[in-house]
Amino acid sequence: MKNQHPRLPRLRVGLLALVALLPTPLPAADVAQTSNPIGRVARLFNRKLVEVENRIRWLESRADNLAAFGEKPLKENVGWRCGRIEETGGKPWIALDLGREVPLGQIFLVPAQQQAGDPNDLFPRRFSIEAACSADFSDARTIYRTGQLPQPSPQGYPVRVNGDKLAARHVRLTLEEGYRRGLQDVCALSEMFVFSDHTPVSLGAKVSANQSVEVPGVWDPEFLVDGRTPLGVWQGGMTTWTISHGDCLEVPLENQHVEWIVDLGETTPVDRMVFFPYALPELSGPGVIPPRIRVEIADNPEFKGAKQIASNGERDLPVDLTTPVVMPTDAVPGRYLRVIADKAWQLGNRRLQALGEMEVWTGDRNLAAGREIVARHGGIDQPTAELSDGLGGGGQILPLHTWLSQLVERSQIRGEWEGLRASHLTMASESELNTTWGAAVALGLTFLIPVAIVERRRLVSRTQLDKLRKRIASDLHDDIGSNLGSISLIARSAKRDLERLHGPDVVANDLGEVETIARESSLAMRDIVWLLERRQDTIGDLVQRMRDCAARLLREIEYSLVCRSSKTAAKLTLDSKRHLFLFYKEALHNVVKHSKATTVTVRLFDVRERLVLEVCDNGIGLPRNEDDQMAAVKKLSDRARVLEGTLEVESAPGRGTTLRLSVKRTSLMATRANAHE
């Protein structure tokens, strides 16, 4: 068996790292206190308050599953900063050359960390983003521009801009408005990530800019595409309870050389390498990573003819490693990949060669995921799976696009949460106060409520009976009284004719008319009785009665009655049933009296939430008076007004008449529920 490398105790490291990686929770929202009886009762009567509390709980639950947000300030390679150094230099801008034309997906702008003396992170207040295929932007197209109002600071969270999915090689951000900090139009950004689909294409891109404020090792346009941000490691919010935290070897001073070797399983070029730092409990924030790294690739496991595809050169990597290190690589195909670290990271008298996770990306695939990686030092090979298991420092490592998207969603959730929390506190206090007063009033009225209910029912019943009596009396007066008066006059005329003419013919005619009016009086009485019948209150019952009425009044005219309503089972109120039927009956009387029509069409149908009754004939039209008014429709207009409906009359000599009554179904139905069923 091969000798084991000296490795650091991992259990203690893992437990401490887990605590550091727990997601930043949203503060407690002080939602419903179930131990408070007044609060529980208040929520029974305030549905809106319950909905707000449920939404707050959902937001908090959702935030627990998102990437944690916690700024970890950088000491080196902070980002890009600009200002109007020369007034004639134009607006500050920065452009990225992506190396090839790709469809532009989403763009994420990460604010720079707040500097001493600055009120915030100096995120651009107004800016525009253009895309082009040519380097001089002669074919530029604008894919984003802020409005006239300045954009507020995102409070350290990334800002997402959606691309147009069209091909472009160059992307340019132009500052429209910044801040005044000695210079005019000052702004700062930590990173600008450009994605094609979900693949980052801006890491290591060529950068050009004007009006940049450059401070060696701190501010430089190149730092905008190095993958370093103050947002930490690309990890999800749910902590994974595992001791897997990567690989850490303690090496002697005289032999610091360590190699990590992986078989990619296929021969392919590599786009980029991503190295995650190894978390140590001795370090409160930064992690461990070799100061100098170079990457080689070959077609054989012996690495004969291997070619170097990435290196950080002679300059050590930053020491404040709270973020992954991204290394763009040369497009050289190979199957076997070797990461070489010649210089160890020093912690006191100890020298450490350590990595938390290693990713090998080609396009949107991590070729190293789940593969065994061999650590080689002093001729000894030690396989490990902890460098490729997707776990770093106890947390699950996310793809870059997923990580940024979750941070944007967390920002949106926090904004909504803060707005809901403010309104929730107000609603809860008001609701509980109202409930307290309501309970006091209800207790005081406990003995009065039964008396009030009985008295109200008595008054309502009496009022309804009085109204019903008046309606019946009015109908009897209009229909039966008029007809009986006519019978009396005709009988008197028959008597005079009999005395004067001494002939039976005229008397027979008069008596025949008496018989007709008497029959109509009987039918009118039946209609009134039907109107008062409670068991026949549906629209279907009304349609059947309309058919019977048409059969009586339109005996000499060809007619049709069609019902297209889908609410025939809905119940009508007594008042609406009466006015609808009498409106219809009056309309048929007008046809018989005035139209000289040969055909009549009656339609009953629905138009959205309204019931429409339409009576059409092919007669000569309704008669008009001297003022060109149709007196025959006055009663119809009155009934339409009572029903709170609208009456449309289309009548012209020789072109017939159309009467169209439209009434809201809620005004007709016995209950509001029936109106919508």
TrEMBL record:
Molecular function GO labels: kinase activity
Superkingdom of this protein's organism: Bacteria
Record-linked SUPFAM superfamilies: ATPase domain of HSP90 chaperone/DNA topoisomerase II/histidine kinase
Entries under Pfam families matching the protein: HATPase_c, HisKA_3
Signal found in the keyword field: yes
Signal peptide: 1-28
Name the UniProt record assigns to this protein: Histidine kinase
Species, as recorded: Luteolibacter rhizosphaerae
